[in-house]
Amino acid sequence: MNYFRYKVxxxxxxxxxxxxxxxxxxxxxxxxxxxxxxAFTDAxxxxxxxxxxxxxxxxxxxxxxxxxxxEFLEGLQAVAGxxxxxxxxxxxxxxxxxxxxxxxxxxxxVLEVIFSEGQGxxxxxxxxxxxxxxxxxxxxxxxGDRIILVETSFMHRAVFNVxxxxxxxxxxxxxRMRFAPQLCWGECSV
Length: 190
What we know:
Elements: H1 2-13, H2 18-62, H3 70-84, E1 91-101, E2 110-119, H4 133-137, E3 146-156, E4 167-175
Antiparallel strand pairs: 1-2, 1-3, 3-4
């Protein structure tokens, strides 16, 4: 019994080969952590690129002096797809609205949709801006002031399966017109 105990203690105290055993134990954790860093970084990159693409589309619309139509919207969707790298999977929605009454009271203001058109996303109506989420996302406006809301959306798939689920990336950008008093759908009526 004493001999067996001696052998076990000698085996435990031996340091030969311990680094290779530690490497075998730690290698999967190291590989997983590298994959996780890549996956999380890619998710943040996709979100940042989507924010930039939405801002570019909003800025383009804010400079528009002629009416837009479905073809124009399809072109903007293609631009958003190209900028994000997600191609036709990017959905786009453009909404123009104005403040009709109580513009200086955020909880009571009445926002009126002038038009709302989308490619892959449905249009918004006045009911979407009566209270809560959408109305809270719209900045303060003066009475009669118009604003353009641009929303882009697409599904992002994780590069590696490290616990991240497929997520929908939704970006929202509000901007004012720069060179014209309003953005028109189809044709402008005074």
